[in-house]
Amino acid sequence: QVQLVESGGGSVQPGGSLRLSCAASGFAFSNSILGWVRQAPGKELEWVSSITGSGSEMYADSEKDRFTISRDNVKNTLYLQMNSLKPEDTAVYYCRRSNPYLRGQGTQVTVSS
What we know:
The chain is an all-beta fold. It has strands spanning 3-7, 10-12, 18-25, 34-39, 46-51, 57-59, 67-72, 77-82, 91-97, 102-103, 107-111.
């Protein structure tokens, strides 16, 4: 079955950290460009970060100094390490494959004191 399954979300205080994981199955993981997008309440889907099969990383400007994307092509797993979290990072985070398009069910991240 072709799917992406996110995990690792939760509630954290401002300044805290979380590591999201995305387990992939059913397709050629190592050849795929993968990434993370998020959707905050009442807002549109927002691109966060992407990584190519060879490991080239791309970030939205507001995240590039705080978030780190990585992948394990043996475990077929994508990661997003999020540090120095802010309340505005609160959103549902989705793992995404670019082509053909595929998205997971999402994991909630809440940053609040």
